[in-house]
Amino acid sequence: MKVVYMMGYDVWGGDLTPKEYVTMCNDSSKYKRGKWYVIEETDTKELLSSLIVYELNPSENLIVRGIGSIATPLHLRHNGYASILIKEVINELEKNDNCNNYFLFSDINTDFYKKLNFIELQPSKQKYKDSICMYYSKENDIDSINYEIPNYF
């Protein structure tokens, strides 16, 4: 997990040393609640990108997941690995869990997620200044469901 955690160190590590950051991640109850997914290079087994998926409390009998901590090692960014991983995880969750409602919080330019068909929630529904809540579903328009926007996960 150290390799997975360190993918996001440059963005989320703040003033922590790498060792302190990995310890914080290892101790995180939030990280223990989710399920991690990674994409790796077939031959070398090098980890190329990672993310975590959280089960969110359903409403209206909806199956809802939160996607978070999407990261790629700095030297591998802009190669499409995170996009591939997001698409594959959504495909797997749709197939295996019948899930078709996803939220994420973008700490980067939202255009990245818009290319994957996520939409920004309207400004009145946003809960945070620096992280934009986004939604994706092949079946439901965000305005057609009655679901409380999740807190940052």
Alpha carbon gap, first and last residue: 19 Å
Mind describing the biggest β-sheet?
Answer: 6 strands, mixed
CATH-assigned fold name of the domain at 2-104? Aminopeptidase
Kindly state the percentage of residues in helix. Answer: 25-40%
Please tell me how large the radius of gyration is: 16 Å
Question: CATH homologous superfamily name of the domain at 2-104?
Answer: Gcn5-related N-acetyltransferase (GNAT)
The class by helix and strand makeup works out as: alpha+beta
CATH class of the domain at 2-104: Alpha Beta
The total strand number stands at: 6
The coarse silhouette is globular
Overall pLDDT metric? 93
Topology:
Blueprint (H helix, E strand, L loop, with lengths): L1 H5 L2 H4 L5 H10 L1 H5 L1 E6 L6 E10 L7 E8 L9 H17 L3 E6 L4 H4 L4 E2 L11 E5 L17
Parallel strand pairs: 3-4
Antiparallel strand pairs: 1-2, 2-3, 4-6, 5-6
Describe this structure in words.
By secondary structure, this protein is an alpha+beta fold. It has a domain at 2-104: 3-Layer(aba) Sandwich (Aminopeptidase), CATH 3.40.630.30. Helices cover 29% and strands 24% of the residues. It has a 6-stranded mixed sheet with strand order 1-2-3-4-6-5. The longest helix has 17 residues, at 81-97. The chain is globular. The model has no long low-confidence stretch (mean pLDDT 93).
List keywords for this structure.
24% strand, globular, alpha+beta, LAT, 6 helices, Aminopeptidase, single chain, six-stranded mixed sheet, N-acetyltransferase domain-containing protein, 29% helix, 153 residues
TL;DR?
The chain is an alpha+beta fold and 153 residues long.
